[in-house]
Design a protein that fits this description.
This protein is of the alpha+beta class. Helix content is about 15%, strand content about 20%. It contains 4 helices and 10 strands. Strand 7 (about 210-215) and strand 8 form a beta hairpin.
């Protein structure tokens, strides 16, 4: 129960976005409901373990039959840091805002994130989904990598079968993703975003012109490195890059999660 208790707490903060509300000094403890979720009692197979039975997170990276690193497993971001502020590791002034984008950003901060679509249980979108503090499962097969997100019980497909982007992409929250291997790194390019999500709870904007590049590396058994480059000429003067580092979860499974059901926070969001 400990894993799911902690993630219900964190994911409620992420998915209904109580963070802007907290800026107003309101404490929404009553908004967090913890269902008694039934769980699978199972040990994850093929996990290298230490003599005490704990998983050896520093063991070598697992590989697929064709020698590529296997990204499979259940992963989770390390806390709220990049959900709250995707630019948390950058110095002041290093986000290359266009003036109009900076105005949008400032307005959102002044309004305590009142208009954040994530607070309305709309899709988090990419690349914000990389930082949502709920587990996600990666499934990997020749030609396709699938992300199953506990958050919103949704999915993402990354095609690695050498296809190109559709000529006429219908704008989407997660966009269209194609990937290829560069050595031991999965390079994922995403286009066709609809420009509606925010990059984070802090209000960094994106537009429908953004071209997203993610580089996934698994340096050992229990750790992932994600390098995220955002190239959005409508919002930023040049591409900019951040890095996130989720970790592996074992001996657990995803559970169903609906953001809309019993949502309590939205009515408390207070703007400027």
């Amino acid at each position: 129960m400990a894993r799911h208790l902690s993630f219900h707490l964190s994911r409620q903060s992420a998915e209904t976005d109580i963070i802007p509300v907290m800026k107003t000094g309101l404490l929404l403890c009553c908004a967090i409901c913890l269902p008694a979720a039934a769980q699978w009692d199972v040990k994850t197979p093929n996990v290298p373990r230490l003599p005490n039975g704990e998983p050896n997170m520093n063991a070598p990276t697992p590989r697929t039959a064709d020698g590529k690193p296997s990204l499979e497993g259940i992963w989770e971001p390390n806390g709220l840091k990049y959900l709250l502020n995707i630019a948390a590791d950058l110095k002041p002034g290093e986000v290359p805002f266009r003036p109009e984008a900076f105005t949008i950003y400032q307005t959102r901060r002044e309004n305590n994130g009142e208009e954040d679509p994530d607070a309305r249980c709309l899709p988090s979108g990419m690349p914000r989904k990389d930082a949502i503090t709920s587990p996600y499962k990666i499934l990997q097969s020749p030609g396709l990598v699938v992300f199953l997100y506990e958050s919103r019980t949704t999915f993402r497909q990354i095609f690695t079968d050498r296809r190109t982007f559709p000529a006429d992409m219908q704008p989407a929250w997660n966009g269209y993703s194609i990937g290829h291997w560069d050595g031991d790194t999965l390079v994922v390019e995403t286009r066709g975003l609809n420009g509606k999500p925010w990059l984070d709870s802090d209000g960094h904007p994106l537009s429908d012109a953004m071209q997203l590049t993610e580089k996934f590396r698994r340096p050992d058994f229990g750790h992932m490195e994600i390098e995220i480059t955002m190239d959005d000429p409508k919002m930023y003067t040049k591409p900019w890059t951040v890095k996130e580092n989720p970790h592996l979860l074992v001996d657990t499974e995803l559970i169903e999660y609906s953001c809309n059901e019993n949502e309590k926070d939205l009515k408390h969001l207070v703007g400027k």
